[in-house]
Amino acid sequence: MMDIIKLQGKENQSFFKELKKRTTVDFKDYEKPVEEILEAVKTQGDAGLLEYTQRFDGIDLKERGLRVREEEFDEAYNLVEEDFIQALRRAIDNIRSYHERQRQNSWFTTSEGIFLGQKVTPIARVGIYVPGGTAAYPSSVLMNTIPAQVAGVKGIVMVTPPDREGKVSPGVLVAAKELGVKEVYRVGGAQAVAALAFGTESIKRVDKIVGPGNIYVATAKRAVYGYVDIDMIAGPSEVLVIADETANPKFVAADLLSQAEHDEMASALLITTSEKLGMEVREELIRQTQQLERRDIIEKSLRNYGKIMVVEDLKIGVALANEIAPEHLELCVEKPFELLDAVENAGAIFLGHYTPEPLGDYFAGPNHVLPTSGTAKFYSPLSVEDFIKKSSVIYYSQEALRQVKEDVMTLAAEEGLTAHKNSIKVRYEDDDK
Q: What positions does UniProt annotate as the active site of this protein (predicted)?
């Protein structure tokens, strides 16, 4: 189970060295097979897509077809509980309301013959990858689709791996239907990424690909970046909880476990000012783990990437958090709002004892597609801004350009770009005669 360590002075540095040893995926091990898949789909279209789907998923989709039919959406509603549908609709309202506040508008300004501005345009077509097969995630449908819709994206296509019978998760289909996503394909893996990036007879190419997937999906997204845009390459899930003596050890342990169950590489960390709390949390972790279905995964995650760290005060704790830059940061302290300003690096920040990380995963409104592996130092959560383009707009009248022409020509000459200088000069040659 998790070790308890006291961090003081130079011991912090040794801890960070240890933390950075956390296993990371070497994409080189997957690049060659993924490149073969990408090339096959790029050159063979649907034939390549169907071949690799049969090879990896054991499914022949020639008869069933790649695209999910309308009756399958209707059937999905009969396969899920009514309380799921109602909870989904409430989550959609919260997520849409939050992302509506991120909407950006074009702006323009004028002065003495000059018109400047920025034109905001939504990306035309976006592909959303939703994990499927044995583990399906309707929440991924919501978090990736809603900001695109709020941004004004007109073409949204979804791909998701089918099960062994060639069927798509009912929960995923209901989520898509609730959002009005009609173009859904039962295909996953690197071959689905290839189809989105290059297009096939059945799937029209997109301009951007978003959504999580396994290592083959992540490798494929890296490879097609440049042909299309992508959101980010997500690493293993992680949570860091900062807690003082007011925290409930049962709550803290439950929150750590909620991330540890993702996979064996997930990281669950606790920073606390109370050694007593740390010991109580460790006991709770042992007790609660016995009751959970994914016990084996949790135990490996906590043993390899879990840690309870005792620090002298909360200021040191926040400083450590900023260095780690976690995907999820929980402030389970008496006065969480007093620490908020000091937090600089975190994908999402959860304040107080009754704001657990799963609340953000599903329902609260902020996006759960977050930077991992320390990239919160320079990346932000998925947002409406990820689905728009910005174009600069410039207009100068003849007189306005005349006022600045010497400055422009001087700067062009300094760089040795005489054609640039001439572009300005020719417009006023008649004036000099």
A: 327-328
